[in-house]
Amino acid sequence: MKPARALAAVIALLAATGCSRIEPWVKPYEREAIADPIMAWDRDPVSSSYMRHVYESREGARGASGASGGGCGCN
Amino acid sequence: MQLIRRAALLLLVPLAAHAGVLPEDRADLMYHYYDGGGVTIDGPSLLVRKKFAEKYAVNASYYVDMVSSASIDVITTASEYSEERTQYGVGFEYLRGKVTYAASFSNSSENDYDADTASVSVSQDMFGDLTTVALSFTRGWDDVTRHGDPAFADSIDRRIYGVDISQIATKRLILGFSYEAITEEGFLNNPYRQVRYVDPDAALGYSYEFERYPRTRTGNAFSLRARWYLPYRAALQADYRFYNDTWEISSSTAEVAYTHPFGEQWTFDVHYRFHDQDAAEFYSDLFPRENFQNFLARDKELATMQSHTLGFGVAYEFKPSRFDFLGKAAINLKYDRIHFDYDDFRDLRTTGVAPGTEPLYDFDANVVRLFFSGWF
Predict the structure, then answer these.
(1) Given CB atoms, is B261 within the 8 Å cutoff of chain A?
(2) What is the ipTM score, two decimals?
(3) How do residues B33-79 score in pLDDT, each as one tens digit?
(4) Is residue B29 part of a domain?
(5) Which structural domain range is residue B211 located in?
(6) How many Cβ pairs closer than 8 A exist between chain A and B?
(7) Chain B residue with minimum CA distance to A39
């Protein structure tokens, strides 16, 4: 299969998947524990951004700290 | 003197686009304190977030570092100094359906370094709100100058591309994945720092020359994390990050954290973090001769090193009776002890021994954050 056809097939597959609704296996009413404030990835941004700064100033690695991450979908 | 630079660019840019829900109205006022390796840094930090009509949110931040440095680099090649760095940031978020759009800008300035950073991100909830995907892009523009050298001026252009996925796996488990590609071009070394090389004519057996870095650097960082809600009300988190770049620095960072609330008012945290990295390919503690190669570095940040952190935190939440506009408030105290250990960076305070046989350097740092949080 030529690359262009393969790409078209992948896009078509993705489009077809997008039409069928994926049933959430954790229902909204089952997210009490997940929604607890102690489950937040970043409970105190003012403190965690400071600690990233402390490490990135003293180590050679940086990035992918999850700071720009998403929420828990608990609304 | 650019002690803190680069990394500060991402500091306090509250880019986080939390799809589907905007951050709470909240203000944090923090005092931060760092003491380690002859360097003391402290100052205030303020972060305020406010939303409107459940669709829009704005945030503003202010941060100051007051630095007093007599670090190992400073006492072996320069003079003790003090300086101040100030950073301002603003951000905006717009929530539309399950998509959150965010933009932010920050400026950081010190007497010989100025940095502007702009970020945009888009975040979406999908698959029944079990999955949140965020894409982000950051641009940075830095201006570098050097004290006592008005002829020197250079710049750095930085781009960061990020993907972040948060996934509810079970009723009690959330998983996270992040990837960032960071590209930088420009003057990437510290204009004051020097490397040492073997010099039989020198009294110490070595002399110094200024370091020289490549003008480009591209890094990739991948991280995975998981947070469990335990059978009783407490949370356990594990994180792992892998990083490598075109300077041949490669590192692994792992962390475990435990959060335990007591009653409605107290929350305790404890965590341990371990970081291990290989040196940059052009790093050496002692070069064989002057101008030994095109690129030269003796920055301990680029050395083969490990760090260990043990940290504790306590938060006390209460309803302030005097300030009716605050729904709740919290006092937080966090303390971290970090041990930095170097495999190829030597302590040059020891003299009278053959160059390259000085003891290896290590130091401990104490990091404190004391902050007040108010929800309104």
Answers:
(1) yes
(2) 0.93
(3) 999 999 999 999 999 999 999 899 999 999 999 999 989 888 888 77
(4) yes
(5) 6-375
(6) 222
(7) B235
